[in-house]
Amino acid sequence: MTPRELEAVLEATWPPAATCRAGPWLIRDGLGGGKRVSAATAAADWQVADIATAEAAQAALGQPALFMIRPGEDALDAALAAQGYRVVDPVLAYAAPVVSLAHPAPDPTAGFAHWPPLGITADIWASCGTDAARLRVMDRATGPKCVILGRHNDRVAGVAFAAIHGATAMLHALEVLPAQRRQGSAHSMLRCAAIWAQDHGATQLSLVVTAANTGARALYASLNMQIVGQYHYRMK
After folding, report:
1. From CA 212, how far away is CA 33, in angstroms rounded?
2. Where is the signal peptide (predicted)?
3. At the top level of CATH, which class does the domain 94-230 belong to?
4. CA 65/CA 234 separation, integer angstroms
5. What is the pLDDT of residues 24-58, one digit of tens each?
6. Residue 38 in contact with residue 29, Cβ under 8 Å?
7. pTM of the predicted model, to two decimals?
């Protein structure tokens, strides 16, 4: 997956409410849906003085000054650092062929892919810190999408959201209830997502995770998912 492909999948499967150009920047209106849908990115050649243009556009939306820094944007990274922006949430992207993730198939009761989401999924997300603004991000995705409700020992175990852009599915907002952790629920939900993605024409499953989340990264490595990209944010 190339950096451009990763960016396209991210934008399509976890979309902002709106975008606009402000000078050389692409400005995202996230409506409270988190950094990924609110960060500005460089869309053309820029000068240091142009940073103020992005800041003003974000302030007009009621959003903090926030930039996403992608591979090869070292000059922008340095310019923002010089203006007091700090690094926030370095992120890694993982991917693997769905055919490898879908086998062996999990127990048929381990996950239920569906859309629109059952009410209990919002309750689970809310208990894990995924609020209504992020649920609205899911609603905005226009391609094939589903919610996966995970189960273990005849109890609800967790939830995740998946959507497809082109031949790539991306998994978002994977949460496992505290009482159900370390019992294989996340593993099973990932495999359920791969089966759903395969059934809907995708050839690979991807996701993003903060570099600091070593537990999740160990899970993805155990499934032979490979790091295919990275980015980080700069925020005042």
Report:
1. 21
2. none
3. alpha beta
4. 8
5. 999 999 999 999 999 999 999 999 999 999 999 99
6. yes
7. 0.95
